[in-house]
């Protein structure tokens, strides 16, 4: 037959009842007045006449143990000269059991508190956090400037040499063409850092200005696939996207006009 547990007025067993009596009467566990404890224990059992027989047996066994300890303590002690060794305290075994029970009860209470706290939370597997780009789908200018400073710092650590022979002139229009050509070769998407792979400091700055111009014209957008991922440049294909053909033509016209002005100025 399957056993089941019945509590006796909230006590889970005889040790629980003993702990209740000890704490209620503020008894020193290491110096238990066994007569008083036994009387109070038996008084509790007398209050309850109807309870499960299987559970009652454990309480009755403890009652018998207390009575045995009480009777042993009432026996006259043997004269010291006749005793071969110091007589062991009859309460020692009971005290050790009570201390062990108290330890487990404290651990049980702590685990119960931890369980009550933990059950208020629901765990789940790690998941990618969705990233919504700022309107109109680009990262902020501050984030792009910080990314550009990071690129420049890396380039400066590589000691990019300055032009030593002739001064090279870089234009926004020319760099726009360069960025769009890179995007064509990479399928309309490339990393932000790839736009600044080579070049002098002046060229890198002009490339960044060209990049800002393309963002302003809504020809591309700067985005991050997920948090802390490298920034990517992507050709825009939404309804508000600029026509790349028109952007290229305008950049080419501006570039030719700028070169014409330089040539006229040099002929003067």
Describe the structure.
The chain contains eight helices and three strands; from the N terminus they run ααααααβαββα. The chain is mainly α and 268 residues long. It has a three-stranded antiparallel β-sheet, covered by helices on one side. It is rod-shaped, with a radius of gyration of 44 Å.
Attribute tags:
single chain, 268 residues, mainly alpha, three-stranded antiparallel sheet, 8 helices, rod-shaped, disordered N terminus
Structure at a glance:
Helix content is 54%, strand content 4%. By secondary structure, it is mostly helical.
Number of helices: 8
DSSP strand tally:
3
Rg, please? 44 Å
Spatial order of the strands forming the largest sheet: 1-3-2
The level of helicity is: 40-55%
In whole angstroms, how far apart are the ends?
115 Å
What's the SSE blueprint?
Layout: H1 14-24, H2 34-47, H3 53-74, H4 92-118, H5 141-157, H6 172-185, E1 189-191, H7 201-216, E2 220-223, E3 232-235, H8 244-267
Helix pairs in contact: 1-4, 2-3, 5-7, 6-7, 6-8
């Amino acid at each position: 037959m399957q056993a089941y547990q019945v509590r006796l007025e909230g006590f889970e067993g005889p040790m629980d009842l003993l702990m209740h009596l000890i704490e209620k009467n503020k008894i020193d566990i290491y110096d238990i007045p066994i007569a008083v404890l036994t009387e109070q224990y038996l008084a509790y059992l007398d209050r309850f006449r109807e309870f499960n027989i299987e559970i009652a047996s454990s309480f009755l066994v403890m009652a018998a143990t207390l009575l045995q300890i009480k009777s042993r303590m009432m026996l006259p002690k043997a004269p010291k000269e006749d005793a071969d060794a110091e007589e062991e305290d009859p309460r020692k075994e009971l005290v050790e059991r009570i201390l062990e029970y108290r330890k487990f009860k404290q651990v049980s209470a702590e685990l119960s508190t931890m369980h009550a706290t933990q059950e208020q939370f629901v765990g789940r597997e790690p998941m990618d956090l969705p990233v919504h780009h700022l309107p109109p789908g680009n990262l902020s200018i501050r984030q792009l400037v910080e990314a550009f400073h990071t690129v420049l710092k890396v380039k400066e650590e590589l000691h990019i040499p300055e032009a030593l022979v002739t001064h090279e002139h870089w234009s926004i229009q020319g760099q726009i063409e360069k960025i769009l050509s890179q995007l064509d070769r990479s399928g309309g998407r490339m990393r932000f850092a790839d736009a600044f792979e080579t070049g002098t400091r002046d060229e890198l700055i002009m490339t960044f200005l060209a990049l800002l111009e393309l963002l302003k014209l809504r020809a591309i957008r700067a985005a991050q696939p997920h948090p802390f991922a490298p920034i990517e440049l992507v050709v825009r294909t939404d309804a508000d996207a600029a026509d790349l053909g028109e952007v290229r033509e305008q950049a080419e016209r501006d570039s030719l006009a700028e070169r014409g002005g330089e040539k006229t100025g040099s002929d003067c």
